[in-house]
Amino acid sequence: MEPGLGGLDGSTGLEPPPKEKTAWESEKFQAVEEACKWRDLDKLRKLAESEGGFLADELRQQAWPILLGLGPDVPTPADSWNELPRHQDEDQVQLDVDRAFVYYPKDQTSTQLEIQKAQLSSLIISILRTYPYLHYFQGYHDISQVLLLVLPARLLPTALARLSILRIRDFMLPKLDPAIAQLRLIPDILRGADPKLYRHLSGTEPFFALSGTLTMYAHDITTLGEISRLFDVLLAREPVFSVYMFATIVISRRAELFEVEEDEPEMLHSILSKLPKPLDLDRLIAEAVSLMERHPPEGLRAWKGISSASVLKTARDVNACCMQTLEDGERWFGQQSREILWQRRMRAARGLVWKHRRPMGMAGLAVLVGLVAMLARRETGMGVTGWLAAILARWVR
């Protein structure tokens, strides 16, 4: 194994000795290796969905980079990021890294733990300094930790950069609006798949799924084996699959949820915000695949509200996503950032218009609405609220 980032081995170093493979495991090992050899994304996806996923880290070290679009020759990472300007979110990174490696790997000495934390901190900061437009979010360290414990060190910066910019970009924008928009798909999925459960949860906002979907479940699943197996399919499938995965988990708990009255949304939210234990991942993955086939995202009402620059749409085709460049991702990042600004200005403008609707009368209101639509699209130092305040001052004098 190659030396890891910061001098640490890329493996945990604490794994039990390999046991003899069964005939089924040997056959699947061979199938994964063959798919990796030919970089067969469709075959890798089917293998990731099937029982056990990629089975072992030695196979994941071959398969995950391919699924993330890494070429066969990845250059050795340089330390030049150390010389780049400090990123605004580095203090929060350190706070989160200090809380990392709580559940796995097991039986580390304090020295080993500190070395791994330093490695994780360097990995995250190298991404943020190299791509300073990205915004760190709490839970990003959980995702990064999984990659760090599985992949060879020389692949980590490139793998995490592509994951960040092309697969979880929606969560690294200035605001979490696109992440919330993703959650709005869950009620639509439930409406089609289980109308009775949908009605039962209709008073509960889908924010219960934020931690799971935001962190690719890495914050909520506490064993390395389980989260690595889930990453197999999350990397092999398109990003929207993560949303279907959570909807499947909700449906799997319908009996438990019906024990709580629908007029107790706080209790329902409390139940749904924690993943059930144990998780039958193979069964849940198979059901999520079926759920997505029966109720594809294009048929959901909330899908229309998803930005065309969202990863849910730009990475809808995993094969195409593997061919995308980081420059493509930066361009979509800019588009989404502008959309967020415009949407927030429009919400502020609508609120201001509604507040002053009586003094203006209907005719004045119609004119002002037109001005709002025009001005909200303009970049001005005053901002839309300042423009509206100036206009309203004229109307109400």
Write the layout of secondary structure elements.
Layout: H1 23-37, H2 41-49, H3 57-67, H4 90-97, H5 110-130, H6 140-150, H7 156-167, H8 177-183, H9 185-193, H10 195-200, H11 210-214, H12 224-236, H13 241-252, H14 254-258, H15 265-272, H16 281-294, H17 311-314, H18 318-323, H19 326-355, H20 357-375, H21 383-396
Helix pairs in contact: 1-2, 1-3, 2-12, 3-12, 4-5, 5-6, 5-7, 7-19, 9-13, 13-16, 19-20, 19-21, 20-21
Structural commentary:
Keywords: GTPase activation. This protein is mainly alpha-helical and 397 residues long. The longest helix has 30 residues. The N terminus and C terminus are likely disordered. The chain folds into three domains: 164 residues, Helicase, Ruva Protein, domain 3; 148 residues, Ypt/Rab-GAP domain of gyp1p, domain 3 (Cyclin A, domain 1, Orthogonal Bundle); 67 residues. 60% of the residues lie in helices and 0% in strands.
Question: Quick summary of this structure?
Answer:
The protein has 397 residues and is mainly α. Helix content is 60%, strand content 0%. Keywords: GTPase activation.
What labels would you give this structure?
single chain, 397 residues, mainly alpha, Helicase, Ruva Protein, domain 3, Cyclin A, domain 1, 60% helix, 0% strand, globular, disordered N terminus, disordered C terminus
CATH architecture of the largest domain: Orthogonal Bundle
Poorly predicted sequence stretches spanning 5 or more consecutive residues: 1-14, 379-385, 390-397
What name is given to the CATH topology of the largest domain? Helicase, Ruva Protein, domain 3
Task: Determine Rg (CA atoms, Å).
Answer: 24 Å
Taken in chain order, the helices and strands follow as HHHHHHHHHHHHHHHHHHHHH
The total number of structural domains is 3
Per DSSP, the total helix count is: 21
CATH class of the largest domain: Mainly Alpha
Mean pLDDT: 88
| Portion in strands | under 5%
State the total count of DSSP E strands: 0
- Content-based structural category: mainly alpha
Principal-axis shape equals globular
Largest sheet: none
Span from first to last CA? 75 Å
Region (Disordered): 1-25
Keywords: GTPase activation
GO molecular function: GTPase activator activity
Domain Rab-GAP TBC: 54-238
